[in-house]
Specification:
With 379 residues, the chain is an all-alpha fold. The protein has one domain. The chain has 14 helices and 2 strands. The chain has a two-stranded antiparallel sheet with strand order 1-2. Helix 1 crosses helix 2, helix 1 packs across helix 11 and helix 3 runs antiparallel to helix 7.
Length: 379
């Protein structure tokens, strides 16, 4: 089995993966630096207020679904390419199973040593399940994600009605969960907290299989390899429209622009979480349009660098965890506790990874984590 040469890769998926890492960086640093999930100040002040609105509408709800969709898209791309090369399915499945089993191992290491909100472990389990049970199913089986999207729209419409008709002056606290490992005074204490936090977080994240499934459906339709402009425009405006409408009440609540009672706050949280998948569809459709516009033209430095990062997603993701461990905790540099320091660090870490990925691309170096997983998966 051979890897796909860079010159033959489709631009849009790599761009989407590279950009998804920015969303992940902003979401994770907010949680790690502020010591709670999803990462919010209970009493925001000044520019923190509009920033939290933007963070909840455009980042928090969209980052995980976008990452999950690209995992499903990549699995189908890989399987289809191996089939076109004449590789037997049993061998392709073996590679996928080993790759995602090792991803679970990587996630366990990351989740215990660095960041308990790690998604790699859950994606490893999902990848194994997908390779065993779902990837080779017929076309009808891939219509289920479309039905899920339709159900999601109805679900969000009901929640929106309940939120609008609910009590907007109840004074409930913003629903967040303390991140004990991020607030631990020593590294040993943090690891002990993560030993229990990571398994729980991973179990919760297994629901992301729905996001992976939607991404696999998009890959089966070859939405980024053979893009349809009108369909992508519907994805952009429809996806972002639903995402903004669904997440805005939670964003306004986080920015202290509105008050809810406890019941309405819980409904707003459910609506914001459900809207994220549509935001991810909007992002993927947007990068599909960008890929169409660029086509075979000469790519500039920015596009080349972000797509290079998208080809080294695993290495960049692990780098973010290590960087946050150095920057945020009180036993390291101790920069945690401030909203815009978290935002600056998240963007800075992502930008540094973009630069490093570009330099590696110029020298035809793969990411170190990608090299290791490839050796383990291909034996």
């Amino acid at each position: 089995m051979s890897s796909l040469p860079t010159s033959e890769r489709v631009l849009a998926p790599d761009l989407a993966r590279g950009f998804a890492l920015l969303l992940v960086a902003l979401a994770h640093t907010a949680s790690i630096f502020l010591g709670n999930t999803p990462g919010v100040e209970q009493t925001p002040e000044g520019l923190e207020r509009p920033y939290f609105v933007a963070l909840f509408v455009l980042v928090h709800a969209c980052a995980l679904p976008l990452f999950g969709m690209m995992l499903g898209y990549g699995m189908v791309q890989f399987a289809d390419r191996q089939e076109a090369l004449g590789e037997p399915w049993t061998r392709t499945r073996g590679v996928l199973l080993r790759r995602h089993a090792w991803l679970l191992v990587f996630g366990a290491v990351d989740g215990v040593l660095f960041f308990s909100g790690d998604v790699l472990g859950a994606y490893g389990v999902i990848g194994v399940v997908f390779a065993l049970l779902l990837l080779r199913r017929g076309k009808g089986f891939y219509r289920i994600p479309v039905l899920y999207l339709g159900f999601g729209l109805c679900y969000l419409a009901v929640l929106m009605y309940l939120v609008i008709s609910g009590n907007s002056g109840g004074g409930a606290p913003f629903p967040s969960v303390e991140d004990a490992s991020s607030l631990a005074p020593t590294y040993g204490d943090a690891v002990r907290e993560r030993l229990t936090e990571w398994p729980v977080s991973t179990a919760v994240l297994l629901s992301s299989i729905l996001f992976v499934w939607v991404g696999a459906w998009a890959a089966k339709k070859r939405l980024l390899e053979e893009p349809n402009r009108n369909l992508l425009l519907v994805g952009v405006f429809g996806g972002f429209g639903v995402a903004i409408a669904g997440a805005l009440p939670m964003g306004l609540f986080a920015g202290d622009y509105v008050d809810f009672d406890e019941g309405t706050a819980g409904l707003a949280k459910l609506m914001y979480e459900g809207a994220g998948l549509f935001g991810a569809i909007g992002y993927i459709s947007l990068f599909g349009l960008i890929g169409m516009a660029i086509g075979k033209k000469r790519r500039g430095v920015v596009v080349t660098a972000i797509s290079a990062l998208g080809q080294r997603t695993l290495s960049a993701y692990l780098f973010q965890s290590v960087a946050c461990l150095i920057l945020a905790p009180p036993f390291m540099l101790g920069l945690g506790g401030r909203t815009f320091v978290a935002a600056a660090c998240g963007f800075g870490v992502w930008l540094l990874s973009v630069v490093v990925a570009y330099l590696m691309h110029r020298r035809s170096y793969r990411g170190p984590a990608e090299i290791l997983v490839r050796k383990l998966a291909y034996r």
